[in-house]
Each structure stands twice: as C-alpha cells, then as structure tokens.
Amino acid sequence: MNRVGILQQPRIHESAALGDEVRRWLAERGVASWTAAPWDDEPIAAPLNETDLVIVLGGDGSTLRAARWTVPFNVPIFGINVGRVGFLSEATPESWRDKLARVLEGDFWLERRLLLHAELWRDNGLVQPFMALNEVVIGRGAQARVIRLHLRVDDDLVTTYIADALIVATPTGSTAYAMAAGGPLLPPQLQNFVVVPVAAHLSLNRPLVLHENARIAIQVDMSHEAYLTADGQKSVNVESGDTVVITKHEQPCLFARVESTGFFYRRLMGRLGFSWPHLDPGPGRPATP
Amino acid sequence: MNRVGILQQPRIHESAALGDEVRRWLAERGVASWTAAPWDDEPIAAPLNETDLVIVLGGDGSTLRAARWTVPFNVPIFGINVGRVGFLSEATPESWRDKLARVLEGDFWLERRLLLHAELWRDNGLVQPFMALNEVVIGRGAQARVIRLHLRVDDDLVTTYIADALIVATPTGSTAYAMAAGGPLLPPQLQNFVVVPVAAHLSLNRPLVLHENARIAIQVDMSHEAYLTADGQKSVNVESGDTVVITKHEQPCLFARVESTGFFYRRLMGRLGFSWPHLDPGPGRPATP
Amino acid sequence: MNRVGILQQPRIHESAALGDEVRRWLAERGVASWTAAPWDDEPIAAPLNETDLVIVLGGDGSTLRAARWTVPFNVPIFGINVGRVGFLSEATPESWRDKLARVLEGDFWLERRLLLHAELWRDNGLVQPFMALNEVVIGRGAQARVIRLHLRVDDDLVTTYIADALIVATPTGSTAYAMAAGGPLLPPQLQNFVVVPVAAHLSLNRPLVLHENARIAIQVDMSHEAYLTADGQKSVNVESGDTVVITKHEQPCLFARVESTGFFYRRLMGRLGFSWPHLDPGPGRPATP
Amino acid sequence: MNRVGILQQPRIHESAALGDEVRRWLAERGVASWTAAPWDDEPIAAPLNETDLVIVLGGDGSTLRAARWTVPFNVPIFGINVGRVGFLSEATPESWRDKLARVLEGDFWLERRLLLHAELWRDNGLVQPFMALNEVVIGRGAQARVIRLHLRVDDDLVTTYIADALIVATPTGSTAYAMAAGGPLLPPQLQNFVVVPVAAHLSLNRPLVLHENARIAIQVDMSHEAYLTADGQKSVNVESGDTVVITKHEQPCLFARVESTGFFYRRLMGRLGFSWPHLDPGPGRPATP
C-alpha cells in the first residue's frame, strides 16, 4: 500500500491535529498521501481511483460519510476514532501506529459489509437513489402522528405498519438506530437486512429479518409530512403514495481490519455495559470441544 | 408421485378418520400408500427410501416429529392440519383434495427449510446428537433459578447469558418459542439461526442473528438442574460444564407447497391478529414499481 | 340530569347526523340540550357551569379535546364512538339509547381519570401550561436525530435518556402512544404516571412507573429542533435547556359509565386481537374462591 | 435503639467474620445484640418482639429471608451487603460504621415497602399462604411447555396468558425477575403490583400495573407440572384447576435508611451499566425550576 487518503473531520479539532501526525508518520515511511476535509456531501478532488486505503479520522458519522466516496472505488477504510462513538473504527488516537503499520505491510483482513441501495419512486418515476451503510428510515416529520407503511417483500404483501417510522437496516446498522427501536443484533459479516418499526401501534411490532436478495418495497400513506433518511444524514421529503424500494447495493463497503474477528462482540458487550469478566469461562473449564 | 406415506396422530380421532379418507382417495387415483401411527420416537417400519411424499395428518407437533423420519430420506412433507396449530401445514381437512391433486401431478414447489444439528458434549465426549426443525432450548429445570450460558460463535467469545433459558432457533422456529421470548421473525427460506435468551437478567437481552455456517457453542454453568430440549419434545439432562454445539444439519427439511410464497406472511399476520384489510394498498394505489 | 351538552365533530358527517338524532331523543324526554361543533381549541359559547353531562360524538381524539372543556367544570363525559378508535367511549351509534337512558336516570357510575398538568419553563420563566388526558411527549422534530432528556423525580436525578422522545402518560394514555413505545398497561382507575422513552439508544430503555404525587422534571438537551406535544394535538417548540415539569392535574376527568368495571379489559383484549373465548374459565371451573 | 439482632449467612464466611466485628462495635457502644444464623425457614429463637433493628449480613437473598421474621414484628432491617447482589442493602462491609451509627442515633428514615400475600387454593380449600417481598411466580416445571393462566382482577376477567410463567411482583421485585421478563421499573415507595408474563405465546405479552388494593386471582390450567415460587425460595407444586389469590400483605417491610431517597435510581443505573456522568446536567444548566 503506497497511496493513502486521509479524511479529516472539519469541525473536530483533534481530527486536524491527528491528521498532521498521521501524514508525518506516513511520509517517514515513504507513503504518499492526500488529505481532504469535506463537509457533508460536497465532492472531493481526490484521486480515489489510485488510492489503496482511506484513513478516516472521526467517529461513526464520519465513517458513514466516507463510505459514500470509497465504495464506488472499492477502497478499504481504516478508521481512527476521534468522535464520541467509534463502533466502526479500527483504532484509537493512542493505538493506531502498530495497527496501521500492519495494514501497510499487508498483514490485515478485508471486512466486506453489506450496503443497501434505496430508490424513492413517485408516480412511476424515480425521484432519487440512496446508498446506506447503516439504514434507511422512513418516518414521520415533526408532528407526532403515525404514518402507515405497506410492506412488500419480493412482491409478497407482508403487512401494514402503523408507526412513527420504519427502519430497514444492514447488519452494520443493527447496532445503531435499529437496536434502539428493538431490533436484533447481526454480526457485520451477515448478508441480511432487518426491518424494524419504531413505536408500532396495533400493528406488527416484531423485527423481520430478510435475505440479501430480497426486494423490499414500502408504500407510504399519511396525511402529514414524512421523510426518508439515509444513514441519519441525508433527508428528503416523502409524499403519501410514494414507494421506497430497497435492495442490496452492488458493491460492499470494505474495511481493513487487524483485530481478530471477535472484535465485534467485544465492542458490543463493552458498549452495552456487560463487563468482560462475564465472558470468562472460569477456571477448569475447557474450551469448547 | 406414486408412493405415498401417511403419518397419523395416534391420539387424535379426526386424524384416523381423515387417514381412511385420504387412503381411499389415493387408491381411487391408483396411488400406492402405506400408513403409520407412531408415537413419539419409536421406529416405523415403512419403506421411506421408496416413498415420494409423506402426508402428515396432525398439527405442528406431528410435523416436527415427522421431520425426523423424512429428512434422512429427502422425502417432502405435505401436512393436513388436524391439530390446534398448523403453521407448517399446507392444507386443512376441508381444502386438501385440490392441493394434494396438484402435488401428485407435480404442480408444486419444494420448500427447503434449514434444520439444526446439536451435540451435547461432556468431559470431551459426545453424549448425544439431536436434530431440530424449530429450536434447541437449554433451560433451567423446575426450580425458578437462572443458569449461566457462555456463548461462542466460530470460536469467538460472544457473551455470558444469565437467564431462564437460551433458545437457538431456525427460521421455522422463529414463529414458535423464539417469538414468545422476543425474537425476530424470519421467513422460512432464510439460511440463518437466531439466538434468543428467555428472561435474561442483567446480561445480553437482545436476539442475535447468525449465518447458516456458524458454529454455535454454549457452555452451561449452574448449581441446579438444567435441560436440553429439541423441538419441545426430546429432553435430556444437562450438567454444569457441559457444552452444546449447534451447526446446520447437512440436509434440509422438504415441504411440498402449492400456495404462493407469500403464504408465510398471510398466516403469520392472521395468527398475530392483524386482519387482512390492513394489507390492502387501497384504491388508486398502484402496485410497487 | 336535565341539562346536557352535545359536542359534535365538525368534520365527520355521521357525527352531525347522530347529533340531530340525539337532540330529538333528548327533547322527547324533556331534557334541554345545547350543541357545539368546535374545531380544535376555539372557545365554545356554552353554559358548561350549568351542564350536567356532555355527550361527545366522535372518536378518542374528540374525547381528548372535549376534556379540555369539561374538566374545569367537573362535567362528566358520555362518549358515542363515531370515529375510528373509540377506546374512551361508552356507547356506539347502535347502542347508545339504553345506556344514555340509564345515565339520565342516574343509574351509572362516575369514572375519575387522572389528568396531568405540564409546564414548559425557559430561563426560569413559565412559557406555557398544558393539560393532558393521555400523555405529554417531548420529542425530536423532523430530523431523525436523538435528543437528550435529563429526568428528575421529586428532585432526585433518575437518568439521562438518549432517544427520539420521552412520553409521560396517564393510565388512560397507557393504551395509546405509550403502549406503542413498549409501556405497561394501567387500568383507568390507577393513580400513577408512566414514563416511556421512544427508541432509547444506549440509555435506560425501561418504562418507569411513578406515583400520582411525583413531580417529574425533564430537562431537554439537543442541537436541533424538539417539540412538546400534549395529547397528540397541541405542539410547541422546545429549546435546548428548557425544562418541562409534570404533576397531577388538580381535577380528574369524569366519565359517566354504565358498563361494568371490567369493560377496560374486554375492550383492550379485543383491540389487541385476543379473542374472548380465551377468557372462558371452562366447564367445571368454579369462580375464584 | 438499644436492642439489635444480627442475622448472619451460615454459608458465607465473610458474613460470620463481619458478624464478630459488628457485635464488638455494638458492645463498645453499649448496645445489646443477639445473633442468629438460620438456614432457610427454620424458626429462630430470638426476642424479635423486643428488638429495635435487625442487621442482615448477606445479599438480597438473605434480606428476602430476613423479611419473613421481621415483618410480623415491624422491626426495620439494616442490610450490609456481603453477597453478590445487594440491591436492598444500605451499606457495604467498608461503609457500614458511619451509617449504622446514624441509625442508632435515630438519624434515619423508615422505608416502607409493599409486601404481597398469596394464597394457594385447591377445591375451595386453602392449601398454603405465602408472603413475598419480591414476587410470586407461577410457572412451568422442567418440561419446556406452556401453561395457561386465567387472570381476574377484582373479579373482572382480564385475559388468559399462555406462557412459561406469570410473575406478580411488588415495586421491590420490579428490579428482579420481573425486570428480566420485560416489566417496568417501580421505585420502592410505590403502592402497586405489576403482573408480567414470561415468554407469552400468542397471548397478552404486556406488563400490567395494578393498585395496591387489587385482588389478583390466577387460575392455572395445564396438563403437566407447575410450581408456585415465592421470592425465588419457597416452591410448591400447583395442580391444574388451582387458583392463586394475591393481595397486599397487611404489614409493610421496614428498612432503616440513611442514604437520600434518590439512592434507588443511583443503584439501578449503576447496575444497568448507565454511568453517572450521563446524569450530569452540564455546565450552565440550572437545576429544575
């Protein structure tokens, strides 16, 4: 790996300071790098097609944004968490050197995470496509009134939700908003979607797990405003009668990982407040056969 | 299809009466049949290796038992529900003729459902293997005290559950005990397991979805009695320190289906009390694009 | 009872037609009546201080609005459901005559339901008071981002919620939005509040039940818009740093009831899809000792 | 306070060692004391009618047992936690001296916690009464099969649960088994019961909150074994057709408390893994008005 991009968070001071440090460290090792500090969705003038790795200096929000640039070019992400929540990151501002050195030497594994592709349709015309690494949410606006969402999977009618919102999440998103709404946990390597309503009222209030090739169509029905939001960032107005069609995105999101595969469970239990000693099998307990 | 087996429920009177009817109906069409009315796990003297279809006259409990005979021979099941719950059945005592006629003519589709294979290990020796179409439960005995269950997936430590029980369910089982314990719903064609604790106390209380190739190892830790139960039927004592290893069973369970693929959602919503009109997309609403 | 008010729903045609019928029926019995068809919160020119009963022709939304007029005058409500949901009503357009006749004759019981009083405070000044029969919700606006809500009860710090919204509901509201958000059910005669977060993220996600004399103070903390909504109808903007203080309203909401006290459970189970036969204790089962 | 009883845990070594320490400390202050180390329900030969305070050296299990001796004599409990879980205790082996000194000087408040009284009835005869500080559970035996439980409150039919078990808990019990089963949290001063099913299958799966004067009658219906367990300790066999009647116990359980009333929330959030900083209202945030 000898061409690395660095994405900084323009509004986090530590991100810029760490950026300087990472650049110097890379230069000392003879690795060329470029830096961008984009805000939101503005295009970045960076040679992504010639880049081997993108280092994201930020929290999970920064990683979600970075995915929109890296995915089309199949460039893996290496995240150093300088945000509040860094569930997607590989390293911390204290621990990145050893891990990044291993990545540059090729001593890492590629984690491929499912992305979803969403299309908003109105009057048989495509309004806008979306890509999401966490989830797509179709939900009510500021008025605290339910919306109706008719769900079809592979052209089979499933049910009508009456709820604040409906979340369609990837395994990556299963630990984000979908978890808050009561959804199950899916380790990142799974190839599934999960559909979770928020505050379902006298209608299906169970999460539904679907396979990666499912074609998920959601028709919206309400008398007030509603929104489609992808990864908690891009929001567009949805009108009554609109249909949102969700399928697997053709490319995965790649992450360069050094930690062992169990890192997902270790971090998750840490975040949920279940301390590590719980996991100790105890003295005299053999490992599983 | 010209060799059909009939499995009757020895303790349900309607099952025997319906058996006579089905046998006559098959004979009129020149289809050879054999009949068995086994109780529990007793072996049946039936030429399963030369059988094209097994008709199960009973409820879901009968189907779960029938799977233990049909799966090794790859024989599909056609269920006529004469029990209280017939979620797995294809037909009712009123509706079976047309559907069975279509199956005999080859006008049906094969539903392949994931089965799980469980092994109970003690002191590095295999105590007993199990097969289950719904779920395997490792749970407390009569004493209302929690047990500890250390979960590993593919040799990664996941967490320690402190709970009444831990359920490992197939998609088929996701609408049975796992649903009662708060698990998500998985349509039958999914290739996933779902792990759901029952009444988890200050430990992970979220369902976990896993892929079909996962190797699930559960080590049990308690000072009182515990049991492993497969499909709510076979129960064996588990000792503290035992490990239960669960993987995908090498063969699926086959069902001969005539109804369209959406039958799963229609039945599920019916059972959950969400009436069909909810599903109507309404006048003027085009089908999804 | 000889002075009765009738509140019609100005936007539901059946409500006006039923109003004519009720008026004629009352006149035949020599009962004086007045009619109002207010929309939203407009004042009504009606002699509520001289009124013995208010008949509400509408659904639960109409009853929630009617409470704002009847409560200050201690006038009981008799609801005839012409809306979609009539959980608070006593009668239907088919069944009201017998029941209303019994009420006029004094053959009824008074149901007293707890109301809550909420005050929005900003910079140590009271912005606005609210009254609610169902619930007060403090929630995010159109942007799907969490807000932080610091809860104090009787000046004791309880916890900080990170969620879409926080609901403080009465027993009446326990079957409305609070139920959708996962709250417990409270029969209407209870003197408790219930606090339920919506989609709590890595923070307390359990409902909390409080006693009627609790002083509930919620301080709001977010970088985007948030709203306070009372009974799903009145909504005002909340700013970061604002505090909402909720206590019991000094007067209850009165309902004139003819049905036996178990009506709450019968309707609830009906709405939840649990059919009545489930409740049959079965032949040979004595009543409870 | 000059007559104090000490209840030790016969099976915990630290409990006996601490007992010696507490006895010496009391003697130095001229306070007479007696000691008992009973196992389970055996009677203790102690002058409870002449005792001002009972010090419990153990965990929550010890406190639950102690309540059975102290409640009839209205003697308050002061718990020093030497068990794994000490949610009911006031002090720790490190912190007891100051707190106990304050209690002896009368500088404390009395916490009165609701107890429940349960009666098991069979064929119109009372089989056995029970008292519980946490909860009464009516649940299945070792066989993982549901039981049916018909619930009546104040002679009104409520619903039929089809579940592993039904829990009737006090506010004290709301943080124990009832919490694991999905119940709401009730601070200890509440005067309510909460009814929570465990793994309810296609039947009411919502917790139900009731007032302290409710008469809760549960009729049991199953074809296999079931048990009634009070406070996780005393278990008796229940037969199909039996009815369990639960009401408020005539006396409360008293605790001598030195900590401020908010201690319940502080401990609860600690146990649930929500760290204290979450509760900080932040700089510049005034206290609630």
Describe the structure.
4 copies of one chain form a homotetramer. The model of chain A is unreliable at 277-289 (pLDDT under 50). Chain A contains 5 helices and 18 strands. The first copy, chain A, starts with a strand and ends in a 17-residue tail after the last helix. In chain A, the strands form 4 sheets. In chain A, strands 7-6-17-14-9-10 form a 6-stranded antiparallel beta sheet, with no helix packed on it. In chain A, strands 13-12-11-8-15-16 form a 6-stranded antiparallel beta sheet, with no helix packed on it. In chain A, strands 2-1-3-4 form a 4-stranded parallel beta sheet, sandwiched between helices. Chain A is elongated, with a radius of gyration of 20 Å. Chain A has 2 domains: 3-113 and 252-278, Rossmann fold (3-Layer(aba) Sandwich); 116-248, Sandwich (Tumour Suppressor Smad4). The first copy, chain A, has helices spanning 13-28, 60-70, 96-104, 177-180, 263-272; strands at residues 3-8, 32-36, 53-58, 77-81, 109-113, 116-122, 125-132, 135-140, 147-153, 156-163, 165-169, 192-198, 208-211, 216-221, 226-230, 234-238, 243-248, 253-257. By secondary structure, the first copy, chain A, is of the alpha+beta class. Chains C and D meet through strand 9, strand 10, strand 13, strand 14 and helix 5 of C and strand 9, strand 10, strand 13, strand 14 and helix 5 of D.
